């Protein structure tokens, strides 16, 4: 991530393009595959918004990226659903896994069975559930139309909102000359460290013995 356009002159023109790449990739991965369990998606969106504010990108560009993030989230949800559906009623957990364990998969399965549409909608705001929900929904044979509507609404209320909050928060910080670079440096450091630790935790988790978890069909109503 770029700490400030003035600090990294050579990256000044590449900054917005890099932000686009990071945001779209992070959002898609977090919503589609298991690696997303360990990525700091919420803080990434907030940081990206602040970065765009520091670059004086303008509202038009940040709104365009908000739409791009929303599309990436919707696409990631569909990929996750298809992966779960193709695996049938069985998903692979990890023995003693921190997030990818049998207990968490069953919790998501119970949430979908009890609350269906609303569970998918609310899951968007719970990091580990956000990644597991599409996989479990597919494996549990949740009605695809209902799932798509709920996950799309959730995507609209998640990715663009956090990105725009970060952007307008960054514009507010610009009123104090030293405050924006300082806050941005801290946020970028947290994001980088969180990503590195997350990838490391993913490697540790996937090295643990696999556990086959049977997922029950959810109530179609």
Task: Write up this protein.
There is one protein chain. With about 220 residues, the chain is mainly α. The protein has one domain. The protein is built from eight helices and two strands. The protein has a two-stranded antiparallel sheet.
Helix-strand blueprint:
Blueprint: H1 15-32, H2 41-54, H3 59-86, E1 90-94, H4 102-115, H5 117-123, H6 127-139, H7 144-173, H8 179-206, E2 210-214
Antiparallel strand pairs: 1-2
Helix pairs in contact: 1-2, 1-3, 2-7, 2-8, 3-6, 3-7, 4-5, 4-6, 5-7
**Overall average residue pLDDT:** 86
Question: What is the count of distinct domains?
Answer: 1
What is the structural class?
mainly alpha
Tell me the strand percentage band.
under 5%
Q: Count the helices. How many?
A: 8
Rg is 18 Å
Model regions low in confidence, pLDDT < 50 over at least 5 residues: 1-14
Oligomer: single chain
Q: Give, in spatial order, the strands making up the sheet with the most strands.
A: 1-2
The topology string of helices and strands comes to HHHEHHHHHE
The outline comes out as globular
Family: Belongs to the DedA family.
Keywords: Cell membrane, Membrane, Transmembrane, Transmembrane helix
Membrane topology: Multi-pass membrane protein
InterPro entries: DedA-like, VTT_dom
């Amino acid at each position: 991530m770029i700490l400030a356009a003035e600090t990294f002159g050579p990256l000044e023109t590449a900054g917005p393009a890099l932000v686009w790449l990071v945001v779209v990739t992070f959002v898609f991965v977090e919503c589609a595959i298991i690696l997303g369990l360990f990525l700091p998606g919420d803080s990434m969106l907030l940081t990206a918004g602040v970065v765009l504010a520091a670059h004086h990108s303008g509202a038009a560009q940040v709104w365009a990226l908000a739409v791009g993030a929303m599309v990436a989230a919707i696409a990631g949800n569909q990929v996750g659903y298809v992966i779960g559906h193709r695996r049938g009623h069985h998903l692979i957990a990890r023995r003693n896994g921190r997030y990818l364990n049998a207990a968490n998969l069953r919790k998501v399965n119970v949430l979908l069975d009890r609350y269906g549409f609303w569970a998918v909608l609310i899951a968007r705001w719970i990091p580990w559930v956000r990644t597991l929900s599409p996989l479990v929904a597919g494996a549990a044979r949740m009605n695809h139309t209902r799932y798509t509507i709920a996950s799309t609404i959730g995507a609209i209320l998640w990715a663009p909102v956090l990105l725009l909050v970060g952007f307008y928060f960054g514009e507010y910080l610009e009123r104090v000359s030293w405050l924006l670079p300082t806050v941005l440096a801290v946020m970028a450091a947290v994001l980088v460290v969180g990503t590195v630790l997350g990838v490391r935790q993913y490697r540790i988790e996937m090295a643990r013995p696999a556990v086959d978890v049977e997922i029950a069909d959810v109530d179609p109503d």
